[in-house]
Amino acid sequence: MMLAAPLVLEISGLTRAFGGLVAVNALDLTVQSGEIVGLLGPNGSGKTTALNLVSGVLRPDDGAIRFAGQDIAGMATHRIARLGLGRTFQLVRVLDGMDCEENVRAGLAFHPARLACGEMQEAALRLLERVGLKGYERRSATELTYIDRKRLELARVLALKPRLLLLDEWLAGLNPSELLIGITLIRSLKDQGMSILMVEHVMDAIRSLCDRCVVMNGGHKIAEGTPNAVLSDPAVIEAYLGAATDA
Amino acid sequence: MSPTRIAAAIAACAGLIVLALLPVYADAYFLSLAISLLQFTVLATAWGLFSGPTRYVSLATTAFFGVGAYTVAVLGELLAWPLVLIIAAAIGVLMAVIVGISTLRLSGLHFVIFTFGLAELVRQLVIWYEVNKTRVLGRYVFVDITQSDIYWQLLGLAVAVFVIGWIIARSRLGFALRIIGEDETVAKHCGINVTFAKVVLFTISAIFVTLVGAIMAPRWTYIEPSIAFNATISFEVVIMALLGGAHRLWGPALGAIPLTLLFEFLSARFPSASTLIMGIVFLLIAYALPAGVVGLCDNVTRRWHEQRAARGAKA
User: Over the range A2-16, which residues count as b (16 or more CB within 10 Å of their CB) and which as e?
Assistant: First the structure.
């Protein structure tokens, strides 16, 4: 048996309710170092709430979140970010009033390991090149196309030198050729050893990128395993398509 | 340093010397006008320090100004003047930190309403204390401060607000505030302690406003809470800063100077209709200059550069 890689993220019994609606219910989830874990489920199943609990936007009602050797449940977002948790958003969020280099510097400037001004400039240009935006440093974020905005957001998040990347539907809304670029980019991050937890609906991306998937429905985890295993699981098919009535 | 930078620095120094010598050659009317101009320049610029990058509209100017003025009314005759100013600033800091911590976690709209109520809250507290504890409502300010002294202090404060604003704009704090103004959620996810950053800048801004209130206090010989806590100042400062353009350090001053002159002119020429005329002027400004004077300047320079580039391409 292979030795398991160390855990980057370990969620146990995570619960959060909004009034009577339990959005995340006793969720257990782990991400090993260097692994891509897909978080799947129909709309409203609690995936984004789970990400919000991990990144500190929401406080959990119950449960533990261990990240980078610390319990981060209920910790302030900026402290979690400084520990090395990077996150992109379902609706892409870039800083429209700034140019691309400043957008990336936003991720660099508040990292605990401070850079000198020249180093920061160099690091920002390197990160822009890394996501395929070489030569865009003086462009305003408003001038960018949709995929380039997604790339810029990713560059800003990578600037945090994350130990774990949370991608919230990063590939959603891309056309087929852009999707290919996006998948290649994420795979190249994995090849460099990045650990990723991604919420995703694009099945091709899930099959080609994820080592493991966790499927949620109604706040509960209903399946876990390799992409092919969970995507053919009857419980998962039922959750996505509804119960088969005429089978 | 580039030659233009050096030229600008020399011009700034020369301008400052001319301004500093103003009490020597100006008559009483011009000196008093210059005091009004400096007062609103500092207030609007200090307002812009915090509200420009964060886009939180603060109506707390009256509260801090009033606290500064009232501190002088209470302590002016008891302590040495520099000590009075230090105590006023310290009270301003204390109030800014308390208000900041309790309100800056709120959304922008809640913040506006809270700061609007703050001036009234502080005024009522002062009245309650004076009526029930000290049994004096209204105090005479007899301090040995001339109009020229007021002018020089305000000029020093104006220099300080621009220098500190310039430093902040180039600091990590200034960058953090710009990110917060763009998107607070992103700022948090970049590792920025947004509450701390906002409280620090709100406090720096409040120190200047409080000091303006304290320095201006000797202009009145008699101060009571309704004079010190005059709510119009909050609105005037917001309008001035927005007219100038709050997203640049020198923007609010570009609004404060013409509007102060306009106030002065209207209240002298049309004393009964001045408020009405001001209202119409504000509407016209909001309609014609949505991005303020700074936005207009940016547009003009951009067009000039484009035309030059087009001409260069043809040649």
Answer: eeeeeebbebeebbb
pTM: 0.85
Tokens in use for A140? 């305003």
Interface test with A, best of B175, B189, B192, B302 (most A CBs within 10 A): B189
Say if the Cβ atoms of B193 and A76 lie within 8 Å. yes
Go through the domains of chain A in sequence order and give each one's CATH number.
Answer: 7-84+162-241 (3.40.50.300), 95-160 (no CATH)
Rounded to an integer, the average pLDDT of B50-63 is 89
Residues 6+ apart with CB under 8 A from B241: B44, B45, B47, B48, B51, B52, B251, B252, B255, B256
Q: Report the complex ipTM.
A: 0.90
Query: Which whole-number Å values give the CA distances from A120 to A97, A158, A163, B170, B224, in the listed order?
Result: 20, 13, 20, 15, 54
Residues of B in contact with A91 (CB under 8 A): none
Domain ranges of chain B: 3-238
CA atoms A102, A104, A105, A109: torsion sign:
positive
Residue B144 CA to chain centroid, in angstroms?
25
Chain B residues closer than 8 Å to A78 by CB? 187-194
